[in-house]
Specification:
This protein is an alpha+beta fold. Helix content is 38%, strand content 22%. α2 crosses α5.
Length: 156
Amino acid sequence: MAEIGLWHAMRGSQPTRLLEESIPFEKDLENWIFEDPTLISPSLQRVRRQVPLGNKFMDLLAIEEPGVWVVCELKKNPLYRDSLVQAIDYVTRLDMLSREHLRKLVLDSNEPHSEKTLKLIEKALDREANGEDRNIRVVLAGIGVREDLQHMVNYL
């Protein structure tokens, strides 16, 4: 499992790593990553936050080349096994949507999309229209990883 750190840096002072107690709310982490998804992966383009999937809301949906949807589950605490279960639930819900429902879900939000993001969305939807499977990957981001999740990921 990749290790990623968040740091607070100010000109003229030593950077400090953000710890669990440094982030007051999960919403703060969501805002930071939504504003700059490259904090967790250099290729991510934001699509939508708080994505409604039935009676649940996925933290963030992103997309990357070559039109791969990315489910982002964020926790302000160390990640634990239920974080993965929650993300898999979102993947299955996203995968079960029709192509038109997915298009509506990502394009009819109030979130502005960059030209690059719009091209990737169209690329992903066009691939599905041509008979390809929907590609979805998961990104879990939190302040550390508990042993139970690390054990599961190592096994998989």
